[in-house]
Amino acid sequence: MNRYTFLTAAIAAALVGVAVAAPQDVAQDGTRGKAERGQRMARFDTNGDGAIDRSEAAAHPRLAEHFYAMDKNGDGRIDAGERPQWKQGRRGGHRGGMGHVLKLDTDGDGRISKVEASGDERFAARFDATDANRDGYLVRSELMAAAEARRAEWKSRHAERMQQNFIEADADKDGRLSRAEVESGMPRMAKMFAFMDEDRDGYLRLVDLQHARR
């Protein structure tokens, strides 16, 4: 299992939890599992809006570490479509990752051709950009490199957005945010103010927000 797939699987387990049930208990466990997943989701989604934002993720280090990789559309929130999904009743059912790649490799030669990639619309749309050597095939190293490049791009976009939000919230333009400025300009971060104000001077600077994200 490659590093990216392992991390994705680990995050999925942290978010939704997975129970392995005996066959005769599947129906009961399915109902109970939904309730348990709902309770776990409520722990992450503290404002109950159906998504996990950066400030909510910051309270869970394991989730916060991989927030940007999961926030595929770069909107600063992990919604239902971005959270890893698992098939009921067994581990390893995450949609995507190495299992999905192996499924696309229909001839089993350890690489994905353009024809094979056409079986997945999103995968096919990224084919040319991922095919670094332009040989018409995707191999593991190319897929890993593309994933890392996308992660770097997401982080860059988030950093730019954070800086812009900071500038807009800094009403007196003194390069720092008071609690009142955070509550007014960045309300989702307000409940994390004390946690991020590590030096306890009553202000947040851009570097404080960046450290909290990491």
What is the number of E strands?
Answer: 6
What is the annotated CATH architecture of the largest domain?
Answer: Orthogonal Bundle
Global mean pLDDT: 76
Instruction: Give the H and E element order.
Output: HHEHHHEHEHHHEHEHHHEH
Can you count the helices? 14
Secondary-structure class: mainly alpha
CATH topology grouping of the largest domain:
Recoverin, domain 1
Strand order of the largest sheet: 1-2
What profile does the largest beta sheet have? 2 strands, antiparallel
The domain tally reads 3
What's the shape?
elongated
Keywords: Metal-binding, Repeat, Signal
InterPro entries: EF-hand-dom_pair, EF_Hand_1_Ca_BS, EF_hand_dom
Protein name: EF-hand domain-containing protein
Secondary-structure map with pairings?
Elements: H1 3-16, H2 26-44, E1 52-53, H3 54-58, H4 61-65, H5 67-70, E2 77-78, H6 97-104, E3 112-113, H7 114-117, H8 121-125, H9 127-130, E4 137-138, H10 140-169, E5 177-178, H11 179-185, H12 187-190, H13 193-196, E6 203-204, H14 206-213
Antiparallel strand pairs: 1-2, 3-4, 5-6
